[in-house]
Design brief:
Layout (H helix, E strand, L loop, with lengths): L3 E4 L3 H12 L6 E4 L31 H6 L2 E4 L6 E3 L4 E4 L2 E4 L2 E4 L3 E3 L13 E3 L3 H13 L2 E5 L3 H12 L3 E6 L11 H13 L3 E4 L3 E5 L6 E4 L4 E3 L2 E4 L3 E3 L2 H5 L8 E2 L11 E3 L4 E5 L2 E3 L4 H15 L11 E6 L2 E7 L6 E6 L5 E7 L2 E8 L2 H13 L5 H5 L14
Helix pairs in contact: 1-7
Bound molecules: flavin-adenine dinucleotide (FAD).
């Protein structure tokens, strides 16, 4: 019976092993994780969990009983250091484990501030793992002045939590605007205004020259010469795919562990999914950092490990919670040529991204209807007329009537 080993007990790893059993794989399944906790959801780490409104147990994707009931061996607190792809063995500590098929779901690591900028000072924190957030709880409870470095979704969510707790928050974004890498100008403008209204001091086009302090961080010097007194720093400057293990095993790396459309890596019998994997997309390669991708790609890989030969066709969606605002994103807006805005400054609102090929993506702010509609339109591939979208009186549900 085929022995399947999955390295990386996060969102993708948990989805992959569950799918294998659900699909009838009868052989041994082993899920190995470096963290000492069962697979858990990361999104609340910068939202409700950080705010203290969610217990740690509620983060778990599945209880321990699920893995026991499905005869899935879970080894936690066990980083894998070596794969021998020829002998089909992995080494964990002093032990060796043989596999017939192996999946890598090793996720990503948070970029750290360099030591030269004060990144090693006490009071400087990342938000990637449960341990990271637990380690910042003491500082977070006492800090009055919080500096957030990085204006992506994680940085903005952490800023929203700190502001909601009554802390004075400054957020630095080196690029000319927050969310520049992932969103249109209109969405950046919207979130800048939202944070401004909640008292967050957003500084764009300004970098960190260095943090100051002896035993712990006390201040920050910005590239424009400004000096700030700070009690703690939250760093949200992006992630890097965790390719260390794959690299030492000689797998092809290209902005992540390179896979084909089926999730197979350059080594026979080894697959990859989730944040760590890059895959073919529209003539190039893409790597997605989202729950949707981790789950859907892992399930696709599980199917293919069992012989399905199903190409992964992502239907990307994402969300972010800041204050009482829920942002939901359908599609990928990269390469858009123009934006159509629906809705007013207050209340439900959506930003529609159009490119040469038509509708690419929609950002929906407290507007779940537009989000659901956008997902269906993107899935259907139906043409969407930007002029119709721009008409506030138009009922966009009629666009879907073409499929009826
Ligand atoms: C603070 C935060 C907020 C987020 N918010 C959202 C959101 O609102 N919406 C959304 O869609 N996405 C969000 N994401 C992104 C989403 O959580 C990730 O895309 C998703 O967790 C990726 O799943 P994964 O399984 O690929 O990686 P992970 O969940 O990171 O799991 C990878 C696991 O592999 C382990 N590992 C790595 N190397 C080894 C090794 N050699 N041996 C053993 N184990 C190893 C790691 O320790 C880790 O536990 C957020 C992420 C963070 C950090």
């Amino acid at each position: 019976m085929s022995r399947i080993v999955v390295i990386g007990a996060g969102q993708a790893g948990a989805s992959l092993v569950a799918r294998l059993r659900k699909s009838g794989h009868a052989g041994p399944i082993t899920l190995i994780g470096a963290e000492p906790v069962l697979p858990y959801q990361r999104p609340p780490l910068s939202k409700k969990y950080l705010l203290g409104q969610m217990p740690a147990e509620a983060l778990l994707l599945r209880p321990a009983a699920f893995y026991a009931a499905n005869d899935i061996t879970v080894k936690l607190g066990t980083p894998v250091h070596e794969i021998d792809p020829v002998a089909r063995r992995i080494r964990l500590g002093d032990a060796v484990l043989a596999y017939d098929q192996l999946a890598l779901t090793t996720g990503s690591t948070a970029r750290r501030l360099p030591s030269a900028l004060g990144g090693d000072l006490a009071g400087v924190h990342s938000v990637r793992s449960l341990a990271d957030v637990d380690a910042m709880a003491h500082d977070f409870a006492r800090a009055q002045r919080v500096l957030v470095v990085g204006g992506g979704y994680v940085g903005l969510e952490a800023a929203a939590v700190a502001a909601a707790r009554g802390q004075a928050v400054t957020l630095l974004e080196m690029a000319p605007r927050i969310l520049q890498r992932v969103a249109c100008v209109e969405t950046s403008d919207y979130f800048r205004a939202l944070h401004g209204a909640n008292g967050v001091d957003i500084r764009e086009g300004v970098g960190l020259a260095g943090l100051t302090g002896d035993d712990r961080v006390r201040g920050a010097e910005l590239t424009d010469g400004t000096r700030l007194a700070v009690d703690m720093v939250i760093v949200g400057i992006g992630i890097d795919p965790d390719t260390r293990l794959a690299q030492t095993a000689g797998l092809m790396i290209d902005n992540g562990i390179a896979t084909d459309a089926f999730g197979a890596t350059s080594q026979p019998g080894i697959w990859a999914a989730g944040d760590c994997a890059s895959f073919p997309h529209q003539g190039g390669r893409i790597r997605l950092e989202s729950v949707q991708n981790a789950v859907d790609q892992a399930e696709c890989v599980a199917d293919n490990m069992l012989g399905a030969a199903r190409a992964y066709a992502p239907q990307p969606w994402f969300w972010s919670d800041q204050y009482d605002l829920k942002l939901q994103i359908a599609g990928l807006g990269a390469g858009h040529r123009h934006i159509v805005v629906r809705g007013a400054d207050q209340g439900p609102r959506s930003h529609w991204y159009f490119g040469d090929q038509g509708l690419l993506a929609v950002d929906a702010m407290n507007d779940p209807r537009s989000f659901m509609l956008a997902r269906r339109l993107l899935q259907s591939g139906l043409p969407v007329d930007p002029q119709l979208v721009a008409d506030p009186a138009a009922d966009l549900r009629n666009l879907l009537a073409q499929t009826a």
